[in-house]
Write a structure and sequence with these properties.
- About 55% of the residues lie in helices and about 0% in strands.
- The protein is mainly alpha-helical.
- It has a single domain, classed as 10k-s Protein, Hypothetical Protein A, Chain A (Orthogonal Bundle).
- The longest helix has 15 residues, at about 40-55.
Length: about 110
């Protein structure tokens, strides 16, 4: 059984990201104040990933406590402070930052 699981895991291809956007480009677009919710490419990209993760129940923002500013600030801080992550796809960086900022409680 374990060998079958290992064989299946090895046969499963790594996720493919089909975006031409590079993390460094997103980091440049997201420069500025952490909590700036004004419409921009940065804000739209972050909120798009935020919505997708929320609908998939991968993040759990508390409705009364979460704000657009919170989501944007969480991602901008990671982009600014972790340039070594820029080799990852931007959607993965945003996903990881939002997972950390809006974790789901385990039951």
């Amino acid at each position: 059984m374990i060998l079958l699981a290992v064989a299946l895991a090895a046969a499963t291809p790594a996720p493919v990201v089909v975006s031409a956007l590079e993390s460094e480009q997103l980091a440049r677009a997201c420069q500025g104040k952490d909590r700036d919710p004004r419409p921009s490419f940065c804000t739209g990209y972050i909120l798009g990933v935020f919505d997708a993760l929320s609908l998939a129940h991968e993040i759990c923002p508390a409705p009364a406590k979460a704000s657009t500013g919170d989501a944007i600030a969480a991602v901008r801080k990671v982009l600014r402070s972790r340039p070594e992550r820029w080799s990852s796809a931007p959607s993965f960086i945003v996903r990881d930052a939002l997972h950390k900022a809006f974790p789901c409680k385990r039951r």
